[in-house]
């Protein structure tokens, strides 16, 4: 499968606060919060939802197409992604804006407070998917992730017009989108990704019930944190997949992106939805054990050893041939 992944390309500035955010919040003063946290560490990492997903897919050998906008400071990042199996030829380079930046602080309970500077991401609305499809001989699936909102709408409408299957994955942009925009972006999607909280927010903003949304999308994929993932289809029993045991918990940033990378790779391999979700959960576990979204190493033997322990030999046999 030729899978294009659209969305943000960014650098992450990750800091750690040794205390708890909850201890610094005064219940009757939440309308006028003014806080500054003295942090212990700073890590500058490569990030952005589309780039993170593509990195994971590249590690799994599925050759994703990265579609997004970056600045002239992208050269080193591009070389990194190229070395890790990502097709970056469809990235638009802005002549005037820097690559987007995510600044995030994580506390001792793994709660996070973050800010995102869009920068060159605002030019993603100028990208036409037809040019991407023509370059590679067609697209089998487009994953439309958090990006410039106008870009997300344009990519969605173009997928509908050109009959290209698409996955709706709003993530961080749900907060700023209204109900009409969300209804437009999810209607007709082959896959709808969200976490459990976002699932409720989507229903609240659209005014559609869970059943109504299931009638408008092919598959609803909801990540459940440490409890794994649930995949729902209208009129069918849900598929639920647990997460493998964690060896440590270093940093939750990028875990959702890693799940999507594994799941989309499973689709590219044409394995079952359950198996694709298992690959996604395994990759997500590797990321939570590492600081940074693209700092983990996917060693085939180690991956398959842990995958087999979590999901059994039959599941491993089906996946092993694709990783060889």
Using brief descriptors, characterize the structure shown.
alpha/beta; 324 residues; 4-stranded mixed sheet; 37% helix; 8-stranded mixed sheet
Question: Can you put this structure into words, describing what you see?
Answer:
With 324 residues, the chain is an alpha/beta fold. It is 37% helix and 19% strand. It has eleven helices and 14 strands. It has helices at residues 49-59, 75-83, 129-136, 149-161, 179-186, 196-206, 210-214, 255-269, 273-288, 300-311, 313-323, and strands at residues 3-6, 10-16, 41-47, 65-67, 69-70, 92-93, 100-106, 112-117, 141-144, 166-168, 191-195, 219-223, 229-232, 239-241. The protein has an eight-stranded mixed sheet. A four-stranded mixed sheet has the order 3-2-7-8. A two-stranded parallel ribbon has the order 5-6.
Brief description of this entry?
The protein is of the alpha/beta class and 324 residues long.
Topology:
Blueprint: E1 3-6, E2 10-16, E3 41-47, H1 49-59, E4 65-67, E5 69-70, H2 75-83, E6 92-93, E7 100-106, E8 112-117, H3 129-136, E9 141-144, H4 149-161, E10 166-168, H5 179-186, E11 191-195, H6 196-206, H7 210-214, E12 219-223, E13 229-232, E14 239-241, H8 255-269, H9 273-288, H10 300-311, H11 313-323
Parallel strand pairs: 1-4, 1-9, 2-7, 5-6, 9-10, 10-11, 11-12
Antiparallel strand pairs: 2-3, 7-8, 12-13, 13-14
Helix pairs in contact: 1-8, 5-6, 8-9, 9-10, 10-11
């Amino acid at each position: 499968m030729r899978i294009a992944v659209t969305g943000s390309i960014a650098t992450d500035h990750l800091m750690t606060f040794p205390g708890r955010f909850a201890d610094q919040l005064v219940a009757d003063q939440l309308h006028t919060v003014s806080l500054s946290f003295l942090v212990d560490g700073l890590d500058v990492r490569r990030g952005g939802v589309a780039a993170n997903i593509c990195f994971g897919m590249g590690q799994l050998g599925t050759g994703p197409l990265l579609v997004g906008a970056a600045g002239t400071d992208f050269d080193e990042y591009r070389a990194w992604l190229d070395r890790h199996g990502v097709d970056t030829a469809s990235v638009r380079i802005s002549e005037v804006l820097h690559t987007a930046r995510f600044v995030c602080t994580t506390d001792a309970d793994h709660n996070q407070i973050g800010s995102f500077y869009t920068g060159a991401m605002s030019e993603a609305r100028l990208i036409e998917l037809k040019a991407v499809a023509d370059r590679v001989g067609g697209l089998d699936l487009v994953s439309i992730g958090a990006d410039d909102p106008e870009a997300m709408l344009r990519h969605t409408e173009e997928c509908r017009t050109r009959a290209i299957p698409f996955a709706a994955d709003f993530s961080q942009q749900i907060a700023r989108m209204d109900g009409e925009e969300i209804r437009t972006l999810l209607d007709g999607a082959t896959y709808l990704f969200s976490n459990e909280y976002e699932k409720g927010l989507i229903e609240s903003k659209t005014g559609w019930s869970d059943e109504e949304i299931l009638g408008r999308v092919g598959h609803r994929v909801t990540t459940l944190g440490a409890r794994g993932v649930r995949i729902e289809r209208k009129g069918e029993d849900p598929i639920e997949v647990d997460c493998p045991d964690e060896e440590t918990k270093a940093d939750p940033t990028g875990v959702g992106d890693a799940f999507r990378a594994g799941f989309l790779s499973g689709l590219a391999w044409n394995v079952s939805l359950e198996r694709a979700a298992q690959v996604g959960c395994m990759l997500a576990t590797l990321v939570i054990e590492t600081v940074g979204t693209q700092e983990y190493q996917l060693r085939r033997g180690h991956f398959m050893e842990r995958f087999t322990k979590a999901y059994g030999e039959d599941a491993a046999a089906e996946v092993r041939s694709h990783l060889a």
